[in-house]
Specification:
The protein has about 325 residues and is α/β, with parallel strands linked by helices. The chain has eleven helices and twelve strands.
Length: about 325
């Protein structure tokens, strides 16, 4: 396989997906404008927000003198994380000058050297596939969200970010090679992927709609023979949940996770294991009895039917955009 070398920030197309997150998107674009080396292109996808944010973005992006020059791609409806990013990737793939693509969450803010560090890491991989940043929780103590990405439990289908909760300086002292050896996937909040990897392994799987699509993509890239990398010098501050309305519970009490997100994570976990490790499906489904018990203990007995539907839909392939009944409440 021919090795991809020499990718610089000027060869990269950046993709931001906006869904009713105008303020976050504008902040992210401001950070992109301050990158040490400008990218080749920036595409902002409005994922059918329907709240007027596309109109504001159109006006803001027309004023190149005020910041980064970007293109706006408007979708008629919400196609989810995978569909929104894929729409921009299909457009960027027509541009032969784009040798890599940076998927960046709109609720993330990269530091000036973030893209250069990602490119350096991607170039250093034996078979460049994708690499991730040092993601840091925005605000508060600034603890680490993940060092590039994470691992998948191949028996139960749960995904765990590597380095989560570490102090930033401690994360930056970790052995990069040891982190990379453990990576099953790159976190989609900041993911630089080589053009050659996309052309061989394919785009994100839109069946997931939202959640676990980056995990499946990482597994697919690995199986296609590509390496995954971690760039500790690529620091990206991330709200985590700002783009979906999810919030993390730090107190260990009733989680802030909405019904919508609860359904998607449970459904998509089963679907991922059906695709990647079908031998483990009996264990995954049995573990959902424990999930149901936990919901009951948390005072969420109204979600027991949701847990059952999510498991059944993942098992039977009822995927894609979820039914409106699972909208956030």
């Amino acid at each position: 396989m021919m090795r991809t070398t020499g990718i610089t920030a000027g060869d990269v197309g950046i993709v931001l997906v906006n869904f009713r997150g105008l303020r976050d998107t504008l902040s992210c674009l401001g950070a992109v404008a301050n990158l040490r080396t400008p990218p080749r292109r920036v595409i902002v996808v409005d994922n059918g927000s329907g709240d007027g944010s596309a109109d504001t973005l159109r006006m803001e992006l027309a004023r190149c003198g005020s910041g980064v020059c970007a293109e706006l791609l408007e979708l008629p409806g919400n196609e989810g994380f995978a569909g929104g990013n894929n729409a921009a990737l299909r457009l960027l793939l027509r541009d032969q000058g784009c040798r890599a693509f940076w998927l960046l969450n709109n609720d993330a803010e990269p530091e000036p050297a973030a893209l250069d560090a990602l490119c350096e890491t991607l170039n250093a991989l034996a078979t460049p596939g994708a690499c991730g940043s040092l993601l840091v929780h925005m605000g508060g103590a600034g603890r680490v969200q993940c060092t590039g990405g994470g691992r998948l439990n191949r028996l139960f289908g749960t995904a765990r970010h590597l380095g989560e909760g570490l102090a930033v300086d401690a994360a930056q002292r970790l052995s990069t090679k040891e982190v990379e050896a453990r990576l099953d996937y790159i976190c989609g909040a900041s993911l630089l992927v080589a053009r050659s990897a996309v052309e061989r392994a394919g785009l994100l799987d839109e069946a997931f709609f939202l959640y676990y699509e980056d995990v499946e993509w990482g597994l697919r890239l690995r199986r296609a023979g590509f390496d995954l990398g971690y760039a500790p010098g690529s620091v990206v501050r991330h709200k985590e949940g700002g783009s979906t309305g999810a919030a993390s519970s730090r107190e260990g009490n009733v989680p802030v996770r909405s019904r919508f997100i609860d359904y998607l994570t449970l459904r998509n976990r089963v679907w991922l294991m059906r695709l990647a490790y079908p031998f483990a499906l009996p264990l995954v489904l049995a573990s959902y009895l424990g999930v149901a018990v936990n919901r009951w203990r948390r005072g969420q007995a109204d979600r027991l039917g949701l847990v059952a539907r999510a498991a059944w839909h993942g098992l039977t392939g009822r995927m894609g955009r979820p039914d409106p009944s699972h909208s956030p409440k």
